[in-house]
Specification:
Helices cover 49% and strands 9% of the residues. The protein has 22 helices and twelve strands. A hairpin with a 4-residue loop joins strand 1 and strand 2 (141-144). The protein binds iron/sulfur cluster (SF4) (2 copies).
């Protein structure tokens, strides 16, 4: 507990910063906004002053603290492992308390808390979206038909709702394993799927592909129908009331089935990192809940990681005759590599069937950055996206892949501004394609 609490001691962190500046080189915001105040050591310095009551949380400091992408590049670079991202997440709570949360974000978080209403909104969206959106099914993205000169929507690529959500498309239990065992020492050969909101409503082919892979592996699937949002969008915005609600609802629910599955697999880097790492951070001052989150954490694993480490998938992929003539370039989502150390697993599962042409810096943040970055601070997201799109376009790849739908939304938008032909696919979709999944989009 004490070491966890130290992670939130802004003054101690500020004192531990030796001002070496090593964190600045790869800082996503500093690289586009060359200003010391929007650099990791600048944030740390200002946060220390704020906690010592030497700095007011006025509109300027609010603006500064909201410009961090929470990409964690700085943590990796810092010789003292100072958790800049975590203290920024904490101060965003103070910002939300002092300035409130914009109405459209409150509406969005309300929907995240209320699955049934979200389902209804997604259905309405599906029915009416063709009126206002030009849909590109191959790219799994849409553009607003009326191109108004407003930065937030002008020439912007956005995800669109599918006809039916993933969670509403399949039964709760799907048996693929014909030789079930009662031996408690053997794996249960059953996994639960946490699909994530974007995978549930927009990129539904990810879940379909994951089920196809599990069928080939003869691993049973449990689709927990009462799963709620992992709470990442609210956490990064400082809406801790919503975080508290979603985290506790999910923990209570996961506990009802966790002993009946080998793992909860998540084909989404951000959701997975939120649940196995940030829930623990968030609950640092609620000891009972912290223990419960810590107990669940080791069983919440990114899908490629679990499939790579626990099944014969790699061998199966090597045995297929499938050789794609499409070249892939793989982007490392910040929440996969930097928070969960996952980068080789998806590549090893793709390599038997696809050629990979690495982009110059697969670790560079794509620029998604969360709800605020995608709305009020979209100009920053766009500026970072230009660099990522250039890196991708400089490869021979026709597909860019990453196990993260937030990266997908941001990268598809960034590529859409360059007239690039490169399309985005989650590695799970590509793996299912290698195994012969029909009609993989
Ligand atoms: S989390 Fe990313 S954007 Fe924020 S300070 Fe660290 S490197 Fe910079
Ligand atoms: S790398 Fe760490 S110690 Fe060095 S300036 Fe950045 S935050 Fe401070």
């Amino acid at each position: 507990m004490s070491s966890m609490n130290n992670k939130f001691n802004f003054t101690a962190i500020s004192d531990e910063c030796i001002k070496c500046g090593k964190c600045k080189t790869n800082c996503t915001i500093f690289n586009i906004n060359q200003d010391e105040t929007t650099s990791p050591r600048g944030f740390i310095d200002l946060l220390g002053a704020y906690k010592r009551d030497e700095l007011e949380l006025d509109k300027t400091t609010k603006d500064i603290f909201e410009s961090c992408f929470l990409c964690t590049n700085c943590v990796e670079a810092c010789p003292n492992d100072l958790p800049t991202d975590m203290i920024i997440e904490q101060v965003r709570y103070d910002i939300a308390k002092k300035y409130g949360i914009a109405w459209y974000k409150r509406l969005f978080f309300f929907l995240l808390r209320n699955r049934k209403i979200m389902d209804l909104m997604a259905k309405l969206g599906y029915v009416f979206q063709t009126c206002g959106l030009k849909i590109d099914h191959q790219k799994q993205s849409s553009k607003i038909r009326f191109n108004l000169p407003i930065e937030l929507i002008e020439n912007r690529s956005l995800p669109f709702a599918d006809r039916k959500s993933f969670l509403n498309s399949y039964p709760e239990n799907i048996i693929y394993n014909k030789q079930q065992t009662t031996n408690k020492d053997l794996p249960l050969n059953k996994v639960a799927i946490f699909i994530g909101c974007m995978g549930n409503y927009a990129y539904t082919n990810i879940g379909k592909s994951l089920l196809f892979i599990l069928e080939k592996l003869e691993v049973d699937a449990f689709i927990p129908k009462k799963q709620l949002c992992c709470s990442a969008p609210a956490y990064f915005t400082g809406d801790f009331d919503t975080v508290d609600y979603l985290v506790k609802q999910n923990i209570e629910y996961f506990e009802t089935f966790i002993d009946e599955v080998d793992a909860i697999i998540v084909p989404e880097a951000t959701c997975s990192a939120m649940m196995n790492t940030d829930w623990v951070h968030y609950l640092h001052n609620q000891p009972q809940w912290l223990k419960r989150a810590e107990k669940l954490a080791p069983k919440i694993i990114m899908a490629t990681k679990w499939l790579h480490d626990n099944t014969k998938l790699q061998a199966l992929l090597k045995d297929t005759n499938y050789k794609s003539d499409e070249i892939i370039t793989y982007h490392n989502p910040c929440h996969a590599k930097k928070m969960q150390g996952i980068e080789k697993e998806p590549r090893e599962l793709l390599k038997p069937n696809y050629a990979i042409d690495e982009m110059s810096d697969p670790d560079a943040c794509c620029g998604f950055g969360g709800v605020t970055m995608q709305s009020e601070k979209y100009h920053f997201a766009k500026a970072v996206g230009v660099k990522k799109a250039a890196m991708i376009n400089n490869t021979k790849a026709s597909i860019v892949s990453a196990e993260c739908s937030a990266c997908r939304m941001q990268i598809t938008d960034s590529l859409g501004r360059t007239d690039s032909k490169v399309i985005f696919k989650n590695p799970i979709e590509l793996i299912a394609q290698s195994l012969g999944m029909p009609n993989a989009k």
